[in-house]
Specification:
The protein has a single domain, classed as Rossmann fold, CATH 3.40.50. It has eleven helices and 16 strands. It has helices spanning 11-22, 52-55, 76-98, 135-148, 173-181, 200-212, 230-240, 251-258, 260-266, 275-279, 289-300; strands at 2-6, 26-31, 40-42, 60-63, 106-112, 123-124, 156-162, 164-167, 170-171, 186-188, 194-195, 197-199, 218-222, 228-229, 247-249, 271-272. The two termini are 19 Å apart.
Length: 307
């Protein structure tokens, strides 16, 4: 299979690229790098079209483009960057694909579970079409709708609504470990809110399933099948580090420090379930938080994940 990946040098993209190449696929990474390496195509996403001749003959596209959500405050300018890095990039990508003599047969993208918002203890599956208010929920809806337009090219389209992705050497987990290393690790708010998560290797395996399975269309919740509360999540992290957890960051402190990011990202309760993935035959390698945390901390110390 010949696959092009946007965001292929990022946390998820690099792991997916390596996994596909290891199994024998040809992967073309669309990158911002000034000097493209072998297997890469330089493309500034604010420009409408990458070189079309390089995209001819693709079997599939995986769209992982998007600026990180939680690394900076959501100023008006930052919100514009978060939207443009997803919506505008996708629009330019689809424009390029539409110019090909034979557009790819499959388009796989990602989105976020933020569209559900703060829903307490409700179990949320893909058939729940209610959309929360707020910046993140609208971003998720617009991002999905833009990617689903790939159907106009005659492509099979599947979008993975990702939870927080946990990996030993990147993403949010190394940042979460730091407070525990200085003795101040704890849960957020009252700790009763559900926090959706998925391991990096299950994320890669889910994306590969959506690439390979001809019947995989529509949206899929990319989250572990055993949801847990924020307190349980951080207690599992503490236990993997050999620490008991008794501290918390009060909601009012988080709201004061992060504003609406705290409400929509840190304190919202999203008890999502991967019903569509399970129905498609997907099996999770990391389905329970305590065992997953132990395995990730072993990898953080030098081990390697097994796909």
């Amino acid at each position: 299979m010949r696959v092009a990946i946007t965001g292929g040098t990022g946390f998820i993209g690099a792991a997916l690229t390596q996994h596909l190449r290891d199994r024998g696929d040809e992967v073309l990474v669309l990158t911002r790098r000034a000097t493209a390496r072998q297997g890469e195509l330089r493309w500034a996403p604010d420009r409408p079209l990458p070189p079309l001749r390089e995209l001819e003959g693709l079997d599939a596209v995986v769209n992982l483009a998007g600026a990180p959500i939680a690394t900076r405050p959501w100023t008006q300018r930052r919100r514009g960057i978060l939207r443009a890095s997803r919506l505008q990039v996708t629009e330019h990508l689809l424009g390029a694909l539409s110019e090909l003599r034979a557009p790819p047969r499959a388009f796989v993208g990602i989105s976020g579970l933020w569209r559900y918002g703060d829903r307490g203890d409700d179990v949320l599956t893909e058939v729940d079409d209610r959309v929360a208010g707020g910046f993140l929920a609208q971003l998720a809806v617009d991002w999905e709708d833009t990617q689903l337009q790939a159907e106009r090219l005659g492509a099979r389209v599947a979008v993975l609504r990702l939870a927080m992705v946990l990996g030993a050497q990147g993403g949010v987990l190394p940042l979460m470990i730091k407070p525990f290393q200085v003795g101040i690790g704890g849960w957020l708010g009252d700790g009763t809110q559900y926090i959706p998560w998925i391991s990096l290797r299950d994320t890669v395996r889910a994306l590969v399933l959506l690439l390979d399975e001809p019947s995989a269309t529509g949206v899929f919740n990319g989250t572990a099948p055993a949801p847990c509360t924020n307190k349980t999540f951080f207690s599992a992290l503490g236990a993997a580090l050999g620490q008991s957890v008794s501290l918390q960051a009060p909601s009012w402190v988080l709201r004061g420090a992060f504003g609406c990011m705290a409400e929509e990202l840190l304190l919202a309760s999203t008890r999502a379930a991967p019903e569509a993935l399970l129905n498609a035959g997907f099996t999770f390698r990391d389905g329970e938080i305590r065992g997953t945390m132990r395995g990730l901390l072993d990898q953080h110390s030098g081990g390697q994940p097994a796909f």
